[in-house]
Every structure is written in structure tokens, then in C-alpha cells.
Amino acid sequence: MRTLTLLSVMIGMHPVVAVNVQVTFLQNDYCGQSVGIMQATASNGVEPYRYDWFSDDGSGFVPLCTDCGPEITGLPGNINYKVLVTDDLGAMAEASDYLWPADLAILDEDIVIFPHVSTEQPYMKLYVGTSMTPGASAIVEVIGAELVYQPEFPGDGIGIWWFRLLQSTGSIGILYTFPGGECSVQRDFTRPPPTVLPTMGVVDGQGSCSNAPTGSVTFALTNGSMPQPLAVILNGNTSFTPGIWTGQEVVGATTLVTLNNLGAGSYTFHLSGNNTTGSTPTDMGFPYQCFNSIPFVVANEGATCGRVQGRVFVDNNLNCGWQGSEPGVMNSVLEVLPGPTYVTTIAGGQYDLTLAPGAYTMELQSDVIEEHCVGTPIPFTITGATNPVTVNHASVSLVPLDVAAVLGSGAARPGFEYVVGLSLRNHTPAPSGALTVSLSYDPVLGFISAGSTPPSTATSGTLTWNLPQLSAFQQRQIVLRFQIPPDVGLLGSELLTSVVVNTGIPDAVPTNNTTSLARTVTGSYDPNDKLVSTSLGSGSQWLLDEDEWIDYTIRFQNTGTDTAFHVLITDTLPSNLDPLTLTMGAGSHPFTWELRDAGTLKFRFFNILLPDSNINEPRSHGFVSFRIRPRLPLSPGQQITNIANIYFDFNPPVITDPSVLTVVSPIRLDARVWLGGAYDALAALMRDDLRTQALIPLTEPYTALGYTHSGDGGSETISPTLLNITGPTAIVDWVLLELRSTAQPNTVLHSRAALLRRDGRITDKDGTSPLAFAAPVGSYRIALLHRNHLGVISAAPIALSSTTTTWDTRTTATALFGTAPTSVAGSTRLLWPGDGSGDGTVKYSGVNNDRDPVLVAIGGSVPTNVVSGIYSPLDINLDGQLRYAGANNDRDPILQTIGGTVPTAVRVEQLP
User: Fold this and answer.
1) How many CB atoms lie within 10 A of CB 910?
2) What domains are defined for the chain?
3) What is the pTM of this model?
């Protein structure tokens, strides 16, 4: 409204008169239909008044009408209007005002339909007038709803209207109409489906110090259906405003909610369709059912304490400060001394730890990154104040690139699925380049699937992938499913799996680009157990000075009657395991982990949705694995005992039987042999053609050939870098050593697969150490076997102890059992070659001879054919080729072994 006063001087005796005029709009121009109304009111002049109206056409005011009264109708909006008033004495005044257009609109933000359960009608809160021109009004109608509240002054329709929807499904119609009926707008709005309130339970928590809110709790919400967000509301403790909305909302069938910075005390966790951002059904006094709650307690840790927090990150610009673009390092383990106390960084590289007051140091434990600004260990002091101490770890990478491949598996049973987990991890901030992954699996298995990452190629026994690069600290998991044949004859056999990953950018640590896994086929077993295996393959003994690490696999199965939504596993590491050597393995499902306190390991399989065994037995299983080293020194007789607690949803834990390793001092044997098929008399060395052609397998071949190991032997694996060694210590092939009973020399007590070098030495998996057996000190008959040479055994028992004993079968001075157990050239012994069938005999002709399979292997008809690049028992001379005729053929050594003249002669292995 505008007012303008003009002064006029009257002739004669009349006084000076001031004429005033005010102008305002009575009605907006609704919906652009030229229905606006302007009104002028004159005062202080001498009636009658004359009203002349003008409108602004953009270049100035132009006459609209003359002497047309104080009210003018039919006006279009979005225009400035002016009135000129003249009284009866000729005094004049003018005023102008803007006529607003008024459009009707129903906006998304005007409509709030509160979550509801199936037993109630939902409430709708309607914000009317938020999109209207000031002063506009509307009539509100909702089709299919009951009005339960309207604004206190409903004449103009502006305010918050409340309705209760009457329709159970479908759409509702919202209608705004201007009071004069000039126009209206309608919008159909689909009613959301009802909410199914989830089951709520506490799955993790941390107590609080008495002097500061340091507690936390994690809730799992399961079996729910939340098409609309529900608010998380907390109350119950005096350190919080009762009923405070945490700012969190949840939606979805299965959700985790974590509340931090909680003081000690009792609380109630509410999940509700109400929130504190405005009026709610409860605030309005309406009955409301869409909420659920659960009480919980944050334990009082008692002592005064303080907090230290910070971040582990890669300091790309080397300025010792974190910028948002610099990647945090997740799953970094920090050690705090005195203690020790451990904490693991979460996503973003952050950590938060509660400690008693005192002076401490903190050190980042990593082989691939190190803190570079302060120098480790970093000192800090906890005073007990409520403000946390900040200790950041600005780090640099120690290696350009390190990508690791890790394998793990569940149980292997005849007739059941066998699940193998493959994890590919980039331990460094550099991208890996494109990945090529090749996985070899036991040919007895039938490949089923690789989940969401199908292989690029799949052949019998081999799967390959061409995968995009791993970014900084990224990991990728592939879960493979195989079918084991329903053959009880497989019980006790080992399923071998190996994988190699090649990176597009050179890897500075290639030793962990390959790994192998051996899993023994078993019958019935405890579905929730903790499997243990040392680096030498033992599940019961740790060999001093021989074993390097321990692999644990925690296996679990949902044997309940409903889906398990979450699985939580805790493992309190015993004092003789070193938490700082922890290396995470693979799992059957995505998981997170942390190392905390004095050495408690936690695995979280949230949202695992593990079906129960009655519904889907193959998918009811899961596993997770990790590798760790003992805390040295260890003493003979000491035991490494470990258990795991497995929690399915909110049920009491399933506690696994203890896995126990007994520390023993091994007996050691330095054995030596010449293989007649590979021996070069001029060089006094054996050929290493299998190595130069990359044909030697990384996992011992004898298990796959049907050999059953005794004791802790079997599934020995080697690093591929070992096969890069050249010269006299280069590797020729795998051999077998057996320790047999002195009383019954046909009984094998212990066996080991070992490496044979060109110089005739037989070594452990490192290519240098004597062979170690987890066997008692004592006397044994020692047997030596090769996959296509006749084996030998000592003529008498040999005393073995922790002091290395040498047994050299290369010389005639060493007594061997039997008649002509080896070929002899002067004083040199060589194992007889030619047992391509592995039956303990060498035959050139007749039934089951060793010559004909060579001919068949090269095609069966053209004797001059050659098969190259092959690792086969039929390759008698170990040159990586199969030849039936010509130079270096594999037929002639067979004939020479049986005597060279009588083709029907037979050479029999001299073993008891």
C-alpha cells in the first residue's frame, strides 16, 4: 500500500488542505486470468473525489481510465498501478502499488506423509501457502482423507493442515482452489506402503569412561521394511536432552546404526516415524503406532580416562598435514605402549582410542608405509581431559607397488559345494594397472560360478580374469563355488588351488603375487570350528626354527531355522601369538575387521543374509581366514591354543573347540641323490630343463598323483622366486622323503615333499635348509622316491635328531636295501629312471609297460612326434619334452634300466 499527500493553497478564506490517498490490491491476479482488483482510499480532502487510474507499460505510466472510481477490477498481474485523486477544490494526490500474480502450486516439500504400520491410517501434514504470493489464499480439499486439524484462522487457508488418509492403497487427490473459484490445481499423490518395524538388537558396543562420553553402541535392524526413512531418537541419560533426534535416519530391510560419544548409563534407542524437525503426530496429540524401541546400557569403565584420535594417511605433498584428497589408510594397526594396546583404522584412515591417564607412545605397524614427519614411535600424554589428543600419522610408501593375492576356503566334503575365497589387495597408494589373474584348481572339481566376477576364460582346471586396476589401497574379492563329486574315495585327499596375479605396472614385491591353498577332503565335521595349519602344513605341531607362520580359518554355518542377518566373530589372541604380524586372509562374504585392546580380533559380517541349512545347505556356510606368527621365543612342549566366538544375530555365541599347536623341536635330515634320467656325467650335475621352461609346479605334485602323506607332510608350496635361481643350486624337481618304522619298514610314519637341486642336495621349501620332520628323536628307515624313478630305502635304521644327519645316496658307501637298488658308475649311485606309470616297476614290453604310454602321449602313430612344454611322469629324462624316437628320447632310458638287451626284463623297486 502506498500513500502520497499534496498541499493546495485555496483562494479566499479557505485554509491550506492536505489530500491523502492510499492504494492497495484487494485480490491477486489468480492464475493469470486478469482478475486482479486494486482499491484507492482518499482522505483529508473535500469530497467528492475523482479517481484517475494509470498502468505502467514498461516505459512509464499510461492512462487506464478516468474518473472510474476508487476500485478497479479485471486487472492483469505483475504490473505497477497508479491512482491520481482530485478533490472538489482541485487538490491532488497520487499513489501506486504493485499487483502480484498468484499461481497455485502443490510442491513436494508441502506434503509430508508420516510412516505408518499396517494397523493404522497414515497422517498427512500439508503446508498450504508456501508457494503462494503473500496475501493470497486458497481453499484446501484432500480427496480420500479426513481433516483432523486446520489452522487457527482458516479463512485464508494459509498454514499447516493435518489429514488422516482413509484409502488403504492407491493415490490421494490434493486440491487447492482460490476463494472466488477463479482457478484451482490438483495433484495426485501415491500413498506410501506401510512400514514393517524391524527387529532391533545390539551387535557391538564399547563402555565409557566415568569422566567423559567415550562409549559407543551399534544396533542391527533386521526383518524390516522401511519404504520411508525412520528417525533415530535417543533418550534416557542426563548428558543428553531427553528424546533428542540424533540426526540419523534409516531406511531399508537391514541396516546398521552406530551411536558414538555416549556417556556411561542407561538409554533407550527409539526408531520412529516422528522426528524433531517440526510438529509430529505425537506432538499434535494424535495416536501413533509407527515406532519401536530397545533399552541398552553403556558400561561404566570406572577409571578416569582420555581419548587419542587421529588419522593414518598418505602425505602426497609431504607437508605433514592432511588434505582431503590425500587417501586415508584403512585397516592400519597402531601399537600403543606401555600396554600393548592395539587400535585399527577404519575407512578414511581414522582411529579413536580410550586410554587411562599417562605417557604413551604410538607406532604405525606396516611393511609398506611409514610415518615420516615426527619419527616413530610418537609420544603423547593422556591427562584425563574431555578434549581428545590428536596424533596423526602422515605416511609415505616404502614400495612403489605391492599387490597381494590371498586364498581361503571352507570345508571340503564329498558331494557338497566347495567354496574358495580369493582376495586381491593393493597395499600401496599407487594404482596397480590392469590385472591378469590365473587360478588353477584341482581337476576333480566341477566349476560352478565365480559370483559377480565371472572369469574371462574357463577351462578344465584353470580360470583366468582380465580385471581393471586396483586403486590406492583397494581390494577386490572373488568367491568361487565348486562341486566335489560324491565319491567317498576322495576322503583324505587334498584339493589344491593356486593363483597368480600379474599387474599392469611392475610390482615391487612379487613374492605375494602368487599363493596356494590345500584343503583335505573330510567327512562329517563340526560346522563351526577353527582350523589351523602351519607354514609346513601341520595342524597339530609347530616346528621350531622351521615353521614361519600359522594360518587360521574360522568356519561357520547357520544351522538355525531362519536367515542370519549378521555374523560377528571375536578371537582373543593368546599371548604367544604376535598381533603385529597379523595378515588378513580371504572370506566367503564381504567383512570388516579390527584388532583392538590387548589383542582381540573382531570380524563383522553385517548384512550377510546367511540362509539356514534347512532352506539352502550349500549357502548356509561361511568362513574367514587370517595369518599370524608366534611371539618368539617358543619352547618345546609349549602349546598355542586359540578359540573363536561366533555370534549369529542376537543369539549367544557358538564357541569353537580349541585349535592347539604343540611346539616341537624337529629332527633334521640332509639327504642327497642323483636322478639317473636327469644326470649329466660330464658336468656332474643334473639338468634343470623343467625349471628353465617354468614347468615345475609351485605345489608338490605327489598328492595330485594319488600319494597319501603321513604325519604332517603334503601340500608343500614354494615361492616362484625360488625358481629364478640358476647354477648348481637351481631346482631340478620335487622328490619324496619318508621316515619308516624300523620294526615294520613298510609302514610310513612321516613323509615330506622336498626340493631337489642340480648338485644333488634335497632341501626344504626355501631351497637351502635341510629337511625338517615333526617327528620324535629316534631311529628310522629312510626312503627316497621320485615320480618316475625307482625309490630306495636305507639298509638299516638311521638315528635322527635335532642335529642334522646326512644321508647321501649318491655314493656306494651308503648302504641301501635290496639287490641293485640303483645303477652304479664307479662309486656313484643313480636312481633307476623309467617308472612312468608309478607302479614300482620298469617295463619295456608286455602288459603295463612304461614304453607304450610315451608313444600314446605323442599321438600313437608317428613315433617322431614331440610334445613340448610338459610336466609329466612320462618325461623320463626330465627335459620337458616327450619323445619316443630320436635324440634324447624317453624310450631308451627305460630299456637301459632293465638291462639294455632283453626287452622283456623287468626292474623292480627295492622297497620293503
Assistant:
1) 19
2) 2-102 (2.60.40.10), 108-190 (2.60.40), 199-298 (2.60.40.10), 306-397 (2.60.40.1120), 400-525 (2.60.40.1510), 527-665 (2.60.40.740), 666-912 (2.60.40.4130)
3) 0.75
